């Protein structure tokens, strides 16, 4: 028992991945499986696909990952990920600057854009209010949103938040906080199922949700 303990103490780790007892394949499978939506089997398929193809794929992938955080930044206006600041949406003169769509994450922005229904601007909160997880309004970019209401000619805010407990809590907080501002606050129509996630909503349903949004 003592020898086993000593071996574990002397083992080298990358994060929580032991280096001495795993092959390069095992380590890569473990890393891939830490990504959202990827289990052990999918991680294994990805790893072996990389091994079966030209080394150029692995080299290009490694290069892109290494430079990702240097190339991508957050837009100083909306909070979305971009290579230029402000992002191409915020700087587009053809966008409707009177409407701001409030979303949880930058990924939601990409998904909504793919639907080609919404022509306004965005504001990424960076999360949802979740007291049990220690996420309070102070952790979200609500102050920046208020600043945009004071400086921009915004007429409508669309709450495109997931219909979950956290999403509803955040929406209610925003309604109370922004009630004194001269803006109309709407939510996406009920085409989105309760407990659903924007990430998994088909484009047609999402499009109808925008068209049928209701005042709150």
Which topology of the largest domain does CATH recognise?
Answer: Dna Topoisomerase Vi A Subunit, Chain: A, domain 2
- Work out the count of structural domains: 2
The whole-number mean of residue pLDDT values reads: 86
Number of helices: 8
Would you identify the regions where 5 or more consecutive residues have pLDDT less than 50?
A: 1-10
CATH class of the largest domain: Alpha Beta
Total number of β-strand segments? Answer: 9
Largest sheet: 5 strands, mixed
Gross morphology: elongated
CATH architecture of the largest domain: 3-Layer(aba) Sandwich
Measure the end-to-end span: 63 Å
Structural class: alpha/beta
List the helices and strands in order: HEEHHHEEEHEHEHEHE
Major sheet: order of its strands?
6-5-7-8-9
Which key phrases capture this entry?
single chain; 216 residues; alpha/beta; Helicase, Ruva Protein, domain 3; Dna Topoisomerase Vi A Subunit, Chain: A, domain 2; 2 domains; 5-stranded mixed beta sheet; two-stranded antiparallel ribbon; 8 helices; 14% strand; disordered N terminus
Per-chain topology:
Layout: H1 2-10, E1 13-14, E2 17-18, H2 24-32, H3 40-52, H4 55-71, E3 73-74, E4 81-82, E5 96-103, H5 106-115, E6 120-124, H6 142-151, E7 156-159, H7 165-177, E8 184-187, H8 203-211, E9 214-215
Helix pairs in contact: 2-3, 5-8
Care to describe what's here?
This protein is of the alpha/beta class and 216 residues long. The protein folds into two domains: 2-71, Orthogonal Bundle (Helicase, Ruva Protein, domain 3); 81-215, Dna Topoisomerase Vi A Subunit, Chain: A, domain 2. The chain starts with a helix and ends with a strand. It is 42% helix and 14% strand. A hairpin with a 2-residue loop joins strand 1 (13-14) and strand 2 (17-18). The strands form three sheets. Strands 6-5-7-8-9 form a five-stranded mixed beta sheet. It has a two-stranded antiparallel ribbon with strand order 1-2. It is elongated and about 60 Å long.
């Amino acid at each position: 028992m003592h020898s086993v303990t000593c071996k574990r103490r002397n083992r080298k780790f990358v994060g929580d991945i032991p280096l001495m007892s795993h092959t390069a394949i095992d380590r890569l499978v473990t890393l891939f499986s830490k990504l959202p939506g990827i289990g052990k089997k999918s991680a294994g398929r990805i790893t072996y696909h990389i091994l079966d193809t030209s080394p150029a794929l692995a080299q290009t992938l490694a290069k892109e990952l290494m430079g990702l955080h240097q190339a991508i930044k957050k837009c100083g206006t909306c909070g979305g990920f971009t290579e230029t600041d402000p992002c191409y949406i915020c700087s587009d003169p053809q966008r409707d600057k009177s409407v701001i769509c409030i979303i949880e994450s930058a990924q939601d922005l990409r998904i909504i854009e793919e639907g080609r229904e919404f022509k306004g601007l965005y504001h990424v909160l960076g999360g949802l209010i979740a007291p049990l997880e220690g996420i309070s309004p102070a952790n979200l970019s609500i102050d920046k949103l208020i600043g945009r209401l004071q400086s921009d000619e915004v007429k409508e805010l669309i709450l495109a938040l997931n219909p979950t407990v956290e999403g509803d809590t955040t929406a209610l907080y925003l309604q109370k906080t922004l009630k004194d501002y001269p803006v109309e606050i709407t939510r996406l129509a009920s085409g989105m199922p309760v407990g659903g996630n924007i990430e998994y909503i088909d484009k047609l349903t999402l499009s109808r949700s925008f068209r049928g949004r209701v005042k709150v």
